[in-house]
Amino acid sequence: MSLLSRLFGGAAATAQSAVPVVQAQGGATAFHDLNDPRVIEYLRDGLTAGGMHVTVEQALRNTTVFRCVDLICSSVAMLPLNLHRETADGDFVKATEHPVQRLLRRKPNGWQTPFEFKGLMQYRALTHDKGAVALIVRTGSKPSALLPLNPDRVDVKIGDDFEVTYTYLRKSGGRVKLAPEDVFHLRGLTFDGINGISRVRRAAEAIGIALQAERATAALFKNGTFASGALKIPNELSPEAYERLKISWNERHQGAENAGSTPLLEGGAEYQAFAQTAREAQTIESRRFQVEEILRTFGVPRPLAMLDDTGWGTGIEQLSIGFVRFGLNPWFTAWQEAIGRSLLTDAEADHDAKFNPAALLNGTMKDQYDAFAKASGAGGHKPWMTPNEIRKLLNMPAHPDGNRLEAASGKAAPISEDTEADAAATKALAKRKPVETDND
């Protein structure tokens, strides 16, 4: 029986256990069986101090968490990831004929694009303690597909002999043991060497408080009152006077078109505006603080989280560079080294997978052109890029004369041989009379 049949179909390896459902506050949490490691995790952790058991699905309802996860996953997914081979002269070229290059750049499996595959794996590496796991399907000895597995259905253990084993809990029942060489395991920082770290779990308290604050605000909008002030009248009004005052007030001050209008009061009436209560101010401040806590956990700068209290200017570029360097580069390294460990052999030590973060680090058009000018030797700089290398970065076709590495001389381009049009133009210019000026 093939590995794929053992994983996704065929006879069950062992009998299927019952699937209990544990009711948690804010929704139900389903466990695959009583040996599911999430059962122990649930019983051990319980509720947060804010009174919630924070799951990934619940955490993503918070807009700050969603923005952080979406930003990191989309950034990793959209960047080119290529397999390079080192040549005899020390240069690096794309290993276009290698099957791993096809998986990374064209078709990781039968239903996902590279963008979708990288985005899903990065999402799971961020939000699950086990990290992201994919089955490596091989044709002969070469990898031919990467099939992402739900990390909730994968149990990872390391034995006394330091042998790592992966056990997959099948949907149809039973378990299948996977050899480490058949698993592509992506994980970031790890505390035990085999599992990753869930950012959602580590920030569960901050996320739980943020979700509770959102619920409190929603309850206020649903059940609370939003009167901005009151009319204080010294004497009791008759029913007719009350109706007349109500109609007059609504006609003059109700609706967006009357915003900012000045009340005209009579009969000793006085308008008293309600001040913001300390409880309301504390709720607003608490929500702002929880946003900061969540951003700190994911390593996302405030402007990239679309906070409107930060202006977009020159400082944003430096913050974006810092995000790439300290927020994304660790994940780039995790991807590249996981590919080297699981998809390449020892005999392929001259191959290396590399992300290209240039798309995230590009400055303005002017900054790019200034850099290209210096790279080609303008302004007395020593050239280190050929024109065709620059044109390639700009997605322009190569030029026949663009492979030479030489400094710009500043001399005028040589005049081409006269054509019939050139000769006609020269003859017409010769017949023109000189222009009279006031100069001697």
TrEMBL record:
InterPro entries: Phage/GTA_portal, Portal_HK97
Region Disordered, residue ranges: 397-440
Gene3D superfamilies in the record: 1.20.1270.210, 3.30.1120.70, 3.40.140.120
Superkingdom of origin organism: Bacteria
The protein's name: Phage portal protein
